[in-house]
Amino acid sequence: MNNTININKSILSDHDQQAKLLEEEFKKNNIFVINWVSSPGAGKTELLSVLSKQLISLNYKIGVIVGDLATDNDAQRIKISGAQAYQINTNGNCHLEVNMIRKALNHLNWLSLDYLFIENVGNLVCPANFYLGENLRIVLMSVTEGEDKPLKYPSMFNSSNICIISKFDLKDAVNFNQEVALKNIISVNPDIRIFTLSSKTQVGLKEFIVELAKYRMISE
Amino acid sequence: MNNTININKSILSDHDQQAKLLEEEFKKNNIFVINWVSSPGAGKTELLSVLSKQLISLNYKIGVIVGDLATDNDAQRIKISGAQAYQINTNGNCHLEVNMIRKALNHLNWLSLDYLFIENVGNLVCPANFYLGENLRIVLMSVTEGEDKPLKYPSMFNSSNICIISKFDLKDAVNFNQEVALKNIISVNPDIRIFTLSSKTQVGLKEFIVELAKYRMISE
Questions:
Q1: Which of B25, B86, B143, B177 could be a cystine partner for B107, CB 3.0 to 4.6 Å?
Q2: A9 CB-near residues (< 8 Å, 6+ apart)
Q3: Contact list, A153 vs chain B (CB under 8 Å)
């Protein structure tokens, strides 16, 4: 067992070095990169579709890299928004890694992008450990998942800069307790910024886009 | 990289051997074991609570082992049903393994159980590869997650015997397309049995319990 752990550690450290190099390239080319994480079905693809559409209407150039174990459904859905999109199939891998992102970039006209969105594999555990050179990590938590998820998956909420409480239009249907949810999120990460948002009704989307633009300005 | 893959393979094979031994002990003691898997927030804990309560009222002895990265919230919730429950904290591990189950059994009066429920870590990827000596693997897919999850996480649906479409009371609120969902589930696993169920309204629970009893009888 010890051998495995040591080998994995050295891979991880090499991985982080590669991520750092990629981060520098993103910075040099003025590309603002967001790594989107959540459990399966929290609404990442839907949000990226409506968000891309809005940002494109503001003349930003958007690229999306989507990771899934199988299918290219999500990339197809996102392309409808007008964004460039490329699907990575991880073939069983539970998270994206830097070498996958590098290969995917070759399929996008990436140097011209203003925003690059990386939609990670739907998984609240594994992607937490893999930095992909992003400016922001955003975790989605849908109201239907229950208020306790930050406590049960602390590493994901701890390593994220922003938490979006998604599918907010369903909050009454599922008796979502916002106060408890906020308390739980903050208890594992006091520095995290929290937004509530519905991709369906688009309530909360405009406020989020304004904040995103601020983050981008600060990073320049 | 090859080294890591080989070492992991040998661990997995040793793991499967251990699972086989555990399976024999379960069988010898006439304990029907179910490994419950799903993405975070699909409703495993809620279903196990109402299911345990019903089975206890029918004089069955129920034990539940719950796996989470952190907290013992779920075990506490399940204990209210009257079931014995023990919480495993995986400290970052994305799935349960046989050695964890063995240790957890020591905290239950397990030889007297009729049903042992293992609530795996909420994750649609990693638990698929780890057999825990169970009679049945049941995957929950809530209507709020979207109909495409079987296609995107095929290994989990492929390795399960039963799929429960959960939170079925919310199907209209989220425009759940049952026909598409069934088609997707069957396309990755033609042999899977499918149930629709709401833990909240308990619609579908009785039918499921009857079927569970049949599975148990067949296994004896």
A1: B86
A2: none
A3: 40, 69-70, 122
SS3 B89: strand
Among residues A76, A153, A155, the alpha carbon closest in space to that of A119 is found at: A76
Residues linked to residue A162 through DSSP beta bridges, in sequence order: A138, A193
CA A188 to each of CA A36, A130, A151, A163: distance values in angstroms, whole numbers, following the listed order = 18, 19, 7, 12
Low-confidence ranges of chain B (pLDDT < 50): 1-5
Determine contact, residues B52/B81, Cβ cutoff 8 Å: yes
Distance of alpha carbon B170 from the chain centroid: 21
pLDDT at A4: 45
In tens, the pLDDT along A7-58 reads 555 566 899 999 999 999 999 999 999 999 999 999 999 999 999 999 999 9
What pLDDT sits at residue B76? 95
Which tokens in the block code for residue B142? 């809530």
Half-sphere exposure (CA, 13 Å, Cβ side) for A160?
30
For residues A31 and B127, give the distance between their C-alpha atoms in angstroms, rounded to a whole number. 36
Q: What is the pTM of this model?
A: 0.91
Rounded to 10 degrees, what is the CA torsion of A177, A178, A180, A186? 160
Is the Cβ pair A145, B40 closer than 8 Å?
yes
Query: Cα separation of B129 and B137, whole Å?
Result: 12
A–B: how many Cβ contacts below 8 A? 117
- Evaluate whether B52 touches B78 at the Cβ level (below 8 Å): yes
How many residues does the structure list for chain A?
A: 220
Query: Does the CB of B155 have a partner CB in chain A at under 8 Å?
Result: yes
ipTM of this complex prediction, to 2 decimal places: 0.88
Q: Is A1 an interface residue toward B (CB < 8 Å)? A: yes
Rg (C-alpha) for chain B, rounded Å, is 17
Nearest to A43 by CA among B197, B139, B163, B148: B148
The whole-number average pLDDT for the span A196-205 is: 98
Half-sphere exposure of A11 (CA within 13 A, CB side): 16
Q: What integer is the mean pLDDT of A210-215?
A: 95
Contact B41 A173 (CB under 8 A): no
Residue type for position B90:
T
Using pLDDT thresholds of 50, 70 and 90, give the confidence band for residue A95. very high
